[in-house]
Amino acid sequence: MIKIQKLHYEIRRQLQRIHSDFKSNIDVADIDGYINQAKEILLENYNAIVERNTTISNRLKSLEIKNYKLEKGTTDSRTTYFKYPSNHYSTLSKHGLSKSKTCDTIVPIFIHNVQTHKIEESLRDPKWEPNFNWRETFSNEDSKGINIYHGNVLDIQDLFIDYIKWIPDVANVSDAHGTYVTADGETPQGDKHFMVDDPIVWRKTADIATYLIKRDLDDNYKENIDTILFNEKTQIN
Questions:
Q1: What is the number of other CB atoms lying within 10 angstroms of the CB of residue 219?
Q2: Hey, how many other C-beta atoms are within 10 angstroms of the C-beta on 58?
Q3: Segment 42-55, tens digit of pLDDT
Q4: How far apart are CA 120 and CA 153, in angstroms?
Q5: What confidence tier does 236 reach under pLDDT thresholds 50, 70, 90?
């Protein structure tokens, strides 16, 4: 965990270095909003940053959870449902264990991901339909979990995923001198700190937040966000 006040200090320090008016023209609630927007941008671009930025890719992987066993839910005539953990942001990869309807031998099974509009087509296509002999099937994700299609030939036992964990929103209520209302209409009750330990993650988030503030407050600011996202010179200390 990184104290939210530390992120505020770093952002205000960077703003002061560029233009002293930036520091005075933005309040605590606004900085919280920019931090929350910044960490969402970081998560949205996670895969691209890891692929392009070799210097910090291993450090960003502190956001990954490996080989997590999902909670098994209900099975209906077409699918078996597995529920995401509460801190799930996006799935990186998945693999399962299954047995056939006629055999108790449990084997690994490869799981393709299929978009919603392709499900019916995939169920009718011999190359995509669930098949125990080929040890493969397909899935479709929603906001809460994953549907694995069994085709009445598979009995899906377990599902494991590698995923990126969500970073909860922050709030610096202490420095706001009382509660405030966020852009989402929420009223934070007490400080909410940055729930990631790795310095590279919080510094990259602070850099993005600073970029967003300068972009919004300075009409002459022309820097592209890619220079912030893929910069390999983020300090690590």
A1: 7
A2: 11
A3: 999 999 988 887 77
A4: 17
A5: very low
Give the contacts of 173 (CB within 8 A, at least 6 positions apart). 179, 180, 188, 189, 190, 191, 192
Closest-CA residue to 114 (of 146, 82, 85): 146
Task: Please check whether residue 129 is in contact with residue 53, taking contact to mean a CB–CB distance below 8 angstroms.
Answer: no
**Helix, strand or coil for residue 226?**
helix
User: What pTM does this model have?
Assistant: 0.86
Residues paired with 93 in a beta bridge:
162
* Residue-by-residue DSSP string for 163-219: EEEP----B-TGGGTS----TTS----S-B-B----HHHHHHHHHHHHHHHHHHH-T
223 vs 69, residue with greater confidence: 69
Q: How far apart are CA 216 and CA 126, in angstroms?
A: 53
Nearest residue to 80 (alpha-carbon basis) of 10, 182, 9, 156: 156
Alpha-carbon distance 121 to 160, whole Å? 26
Domain residue spans of the chain: 4-61+169-229, 64-165
Angstrom distance (rounded) from CA 19 to CA 190: 30
Q: What is the dihedral of CA 147, 148, 154, 160, to 10 degrees?
A: -120
Structure tokens at 154: 């598979």
Amino acid at 195: M
Phi-psi region of 42 (alpha: psi -120 to 50; beta: other; left: phi over 0): alpha
Number of residues that this document lists for the chain = 237
